[in-house]
Amino acid sequence: MNYFTEQNDLNKLDGISPKGPGFGKGKASILEMFVTSIIKVKNLAVTSMENRSKFVGYVIFIALLVAFMSYGVPMASKIISFGGFRNLFSEVVPQVKMEDGALKAEQTFEMKAGTINILLNTDIEEFELENLEYSGMYVTIGSQRTKMLMVTDVDDPSTYNVIYNYPNTLLFYDGFNNQSLMTMIPFIYIAHLIVFTLEAVIVAVKYLILAFVYALLTRAMTAFSKLSMTFSDAIRFCFMAQTTGILIVNTVSSFGQPLLEIIASIIGIVVTFVVIASAMTPHLADRDFIENLLNKFSGDDDDDDDDDSDDNDDDDKNNDQNNDHNNYSSDDFDKMFK
Prior knowledge:
Layout: H1 30-38, H2 44-50, H3 55-81, H4 84-92, E1 96-99, E2 102-105, E3 109-113, E4 116-120, E5 136-141, E6 145-151, E7 160-167, H5 168-171, H6 178-183, H7 185-217, H8 219-223, H9 231-241, H10 243-253, H11 258-280, H12 287-298, H13 312-336
Helix pairs in contact: 2-9, 3-7, 3-10, 7-9, 10-11, 12-13
């Protein structure tokens, strides 16, 4: 590996930049950046710096990918499993009708949609804790009221929390039936799209915050390297370095096992630190480089040790040089955390 000596001369990075079509300064596509983050990790630091302008696009790509894995795929599989909403409302859901201010259904119904359990039982006016058999998130529909509930422990009444509680007369008009449900299908898809978008936004914010934390923890490595990497560069680099860990965590999360999710999260953190270390190894500064950089930060000048016998003019000249040197060092230090 050929290291370059000029800290700001990024043109000399060609010898260690990713190879192949589309790679080069600012020319990598989002997909190529994704592949680099997983396979060509030794090129990751350079790729993240050379494609700063595409970082927002990469964040959006990762956010949509994770939202698709965690929400889109499970929801799509559930919709396919019951043959679409039209088949669900006409063949699966029992016949319902709103009459005289009360909802009536031919039979009880239970369905799980993602992490939410949907219960329909019009033999009771509204669901209470004693009507639930296990913990979880519920949307319950009785003859008089519709509730959204969260129960942590069915044996502990204090864990019974009502998120919303609406009278059915507010939600359903008189004469409401299964045919009315089918007319609502477009709005149901729009609602799913909104939830998917919110999921993506949450993912983006979450991993940006984690990238900031990783950048703080590994700043010594990214700052004392032969790359002119500012703190904002380090954040972009650390976000991309999370890619493999993100895929591991969200793939395991799809199984819905809390213990496995915890283990996967730990593995994801370890993998991210390994990727960061592997990506920065080709750019580690040698001892002389670090000593010179530290001398700049401290403002020391060994040549001043023998100047005690100089006259006042020489002392003034040395003081001016030291002031210029200290200003330069301060600028360098500020740049590290820009």
